[in-house]
Amino acid sequence: MTHRVTVTIGKDGSISAETHGVTGSKCLDYIPLLEDLLGAETVTSEFTEDYRRTSASVEDTASRQQTQWNC
To answer: In this structure, is residue 28 part of a structural domain?
Structure first.
C-alpha cells in the first residue's frame, strides 16, 4: 500500500496533515519531518484508523483488492 500525507492549509493560515496507509506508530515519524518542512509546531494530534491496523492486515486487504480487481 502506498503511504501518503495530505496537508491542508486553512484560510486562517492553520495547517493540518493526515497520513494515509501508514500503520501503527510509524505515523509518528512524520510529525518532526512535517514540522521541519512547514516551519510549524504540532498543537494537537489524533490517531486515525490506520494507526490501529497492523501492517499484515493492510497487506491482506491490498492483496484481496488486487485479487478482486484481477477477476
So the answer is: yes
DSSP SS3 for 50: helix
Would you say residue 47 lies in a domain?
no
Q: What is the pTM of this model?
A: 0.63
Q: Is 21 contained in some domain?
A: yes
DSSP of 25-46, one letter per residue? GGGGGHHHHHHHHHT-------
Ordered per-residue pLDDT tens for the chain, 71 residues: 688 999 999 999 899 999 998 888 888 999 999 999 988 899 998 888 888 886 555 555 555 444 445 44
Tell me which H or E stretch contains 17. strand 15-20
Q: Where in the sequence is the domain holding 22, given as residue range(s)?
A: 4-41
